[in-house]
Amino acid sequence: MKKIKHIKDIEREKLRLRVQQLEQERKLKESWVALKEDLKPGNILRNKIAEFTHEKPGDKGLVSGLVNVGAAYLSKRLTGYAGEKIDSTIQAGIDKASERLKTFLSGKRSRRRGSQDAK
Questions:
Q1: pLDDT tens-digit profile of 26-35?
Q2: Distance of CA 45 to CAs 40, 64, 93, Å?
């Protein structure tokens, strides 16, 4: 600490310290207001969600990852359901075609037998 030789030096130092005190008080008030705002329940939740969804370069975020997993699950379920429907429709078509073919062939056989019996 340097020696103070004049009263003006003391007054200047007091003024500098008072300005420093006021600046620190202002910063303290601002941080207190920010802290109160951050500790509100809605803001806590919003901040946590923002932390989880913050995407890093080349990395997927939590929300987009969950959406992708949900979409994959849904598409798998829908394609499975659609596949079952298509399989049952094709099977029903094959069954109908085979019944028609059996009816057609049995009708030809009975006609042939009838024409052979007539000879």
A1: 999 999 888 8
A2: 9, 18, 56
